[in-house]
Amino acid sequence: MIIYVDIVLIENLIMNYIILFTTGLILKQCIKHIRLILASLIGAIYSIITYIYKLPIYSSIILKILLSIIIIYTAYNPQNIKNMWKCTLIFYLTSFSFGGIAFSLIYIVKPQNIFIGNNGKLLGTYTIKIAIIGALIGFFVIRTSFKIVKSKITKEDMFCNLEIKVNGKILRTVAMTDTGNLLREPITNTPVIIVEHSILYDCLPKEILNNLDNILVGNFENISETVKDEYIAKLKFIPFSSLGKQNGMLIGIRSEYVKIIKEEKEIKKENIIIGIYNKSLTKKGEYQALTSIEMVN
Predict the structure, then answer these.
(1) Rounded Cα–Cα distance for residues 186 and 104 (Å)
(2) Contact predicate 235/220, CB 8 Å
(3) What gap in Å lies between CA 135 and CA 141, rounded to an integer?
(4) What is the distance, to the nearest Å, from the Cα of residue 53 to the centroid of all Cα atoms in its chain?
(5) Where are the extended beta strands (E) located within the chain?
(6) How far apart are CA 286 and CA 255, in angstroms?
(7) Roughly how many angstroms between the first and final C-alpha of the chain, as a whole number?
(8) What angle do CA 171, 175, 176 make, to 5 degrees?
(9) According to the model, what pLDDT value does residue 272 have?
């Protein structure tokens, strides 16, 4: 059987790119297409070398693991060993899934054209179209599977640490990820994080925090002119609906930034609205803020 090097190169380049792209989506990595193409090319060149040369070293497991690490570093440049191994693991899981799906598709279409070459490689007369279709099917299957798994949030995954800068001062607290928190400030469509008023005393005047209900109805009797002039214009009025309260209103203020800290991952977002809740969110005090899945991701 004649093997065309250019076809092998193109097939492996496309397959490697789709596998790396899927790996990046699953891990929410910053995807740079030039880096992915270069990493895919490294893998494709290795495949061509294994077709041409039959040296035992090219079948070495150690060499294949080293090649995988080189490909991962080229594609995503992980900053620590933990992220590198996480990327490598997902890369292998994706590769195995794609390989199984593509092989099954080839077997269904033309099983008589599949055979083992002299160098132990699986060969066949299938078209590049079948390989690409198999990769695309694998992409959607894997992405859907991981979405289902990620939707099953454990108790530990529901909590994260928050660092919030408001009015030039920084406060830190624990937040729960609330799947029902879809609040946005209506004018700018900015996401809202709900925070108990009790932890904002170092950032905002007590005259504001102790009179939230009065402010909502336009009563400023207990607020000094100085505080009113400085803060009232900065306040945001956020409508919300919840169980038992269909037309609620929440007072909020724009933060300078919000930093979400979860394990070794930090997400920093600027100008997020802080919705001020004038009661306790929980009886036991496990958390004092509510954030959304959108913010955590």
Answers:
(1) 50
(2) no
(3) 10
(4) 41
(5) 114-116, 122-124, 159-166, 169-177, 184-185, 190-196, 235-242, 245-254, 257-262, 265-270, 273-277, 289-291
(6) 23
(7) 49
(8) 175
(9) 92
The domain spans of the chain are: 5-151, 156-296
Strand pairing of 184-185 and 169-177?
unpaired
Structure tokens at 295: 């913010």
Query: What are the structure tokens assigned to 37, written together?
Result: 């193409």
234, two tokens = 């900065």
Whether residue 83 has pLDDT greater than 70: yes
Residue 256: DSSP 8-state:
S
Burial (Cβ within 10 Å: 0-12, 13-18, ≥19) of residue 98: buried
The answer to whether the Cα torsion of 150, 85, 100, 25 is positive or negative is positive
Q: Is pTM, for the whole model, over 0.70?
A: no
Question: What span, in angstroms and rounded, lies between the C-alpha atoms of 36 and 16?
Answer: 9
Helix (H, G, I), strand (E, B) or coil at 171: strand
Per-residue pLDDT of 191-205, as tens digits, reads: 899 999 999 999 999
Q: Tokens 């690409």 identify what position?
A: 132
User: Contacts by 154-159 with C-beta closer than 8 Å and gap 24+?
Assistant: 159/286, 159/287
Question: Between the ranges 96-105, 145-154, 164-173, 242-251, where is the mean pLDDT highest?
Answer: 164-173
Residues 6+ apart with CB under 8 A from 197: 209, 212, 276, 277, 278
d(CA 153, CA 262): 14
State the helix-helix crossing angle for 61-76 and 81-109, rounded to 10 degrees: 110
**Integer CA distances (angstroms), 204 to 50, 168, 186, in order:** 67, 10, 23
Rounded-to-integer distance, Cα 35 and Cα 40, Å? 8
- The tokens for 252 are 């909020």
